[in-house]
Design a protein that fits this description.
Layout lengths: L4 H134 L3 H18 L2 H9 L3 E4 L5 H14 L7 E4 L6 E5 L4 E5 H20 L1
Parallel strand pairs: 1-2
Antiparallel strand pairs: 1-3, 3-4
Helix pairs in contact: 1-5, 2-4
């Protein structure tokens, strides 16, 4: 086999030139383009990662704000609910108090009405009793009734303590009767009173028809009642006490 070294050398030179040309005008630009594309891809990836991190941070911030808003809204709702509950409780207590006050006022008004009605009945009863007593008294001789009531007065004077008789004797004594007495009766009753009350000066006689029958002895220090009016008043007082005890 014959080798043409010149041909081989020329072909080798051609290959080297071709390799240099490829390296100079093709391989290096291709590597540079690849490197540029790789750099652009890396930048895009870095930007994407940065955008993801920013988005995650923004999402966390928004979530924190949302949670804060929700917590604030819940707090405000709780405050409003607590205020509403307090207002409802206050209004309920106020309504209960108003009802209790109205109930007390109604009871008080009813009590006052009962008292007024009772007082009216007592006055009517006292008036009726006085009228009945006066009618009964009209059926009796006046001098007999007067004499009997005066004897009852003298008997009562005898039961008084000495200090009480002294107060009647030493004061300006008034003898109250339901009607005008004759001069003879005034003298006789005055003499009997002086005997029952030693030291008594001349008493003064006065008239009070409300007594119905009987006598009253009055001084600035003491009053001694001995009349049908006094008996009726005592009876009405006992009735009031009995009614109060039953309703109390």
């Amino acid at each position: 086999m014959h080798i043409n070294w010149w041909t081989l050398a020329l072909q080798t030179i051609n290959v080297l030139v071709l390799v240099w040309l490829l390296s100079r005008f093709l391989y290096t630009p291709v590597l540079a383009a690849i490197a540029a594309r790789q750099a652009a891809a890396d930048k895009l990836l870095a930007d994407a990662e940065a955008a993801r991190v920013a988005a995650t941070a923004q999402e966390a911030t928004l979530k924190a704000r949302t949670d804060a808003f929700a917590a604030d809204a819940e707090r405000r709702r709780a405050e409003v609910q607590a205020g509403a509950d307090a207002d409802r409780a206050r209004l309920l207590d106020q309504a209960k108090q108003e009802v209790a006050d109205l109930h007390k006022e109604a009871e008080s008004a009813a009590g006052e009405e009962r008292k007024k009605a009772q007082a009216t009945l007592e006055v009517d009863a006292a008036t009726l009793a006085g009228q009945m007593a006066a009618k009964l008294l009209d059926r009796l001789p006046g001098d007999i009734t007067t004499e009997a009531m005066f004897r009852a007065l003298v008997d009562r004077l005898a039961t008084l303590l000495k200090e009480e008789r002294d107060r009647l004797a030493t004061g300006s004594l008034q003898v109250i009767t339901p009607g005008t007495l004759s001069d003879q009766d005034r003298a006789r009753f005055g003499f009997a009173l002086a005997a029952a009350l030693p030291g008594l000066t001349a008493p003064v006689f006065a008239v009070d028809p409300e007594l119905i029958a009987g006598f009253e002895l009055r001084t600035p220090q003491m009053v001694l009642r001995n009349s049908w009016r006094a008996d009726l008043d005592d009876l009405l007082h006992a009735l009031r006490e009995d009614a109060h005890a039953r309703t109390g």
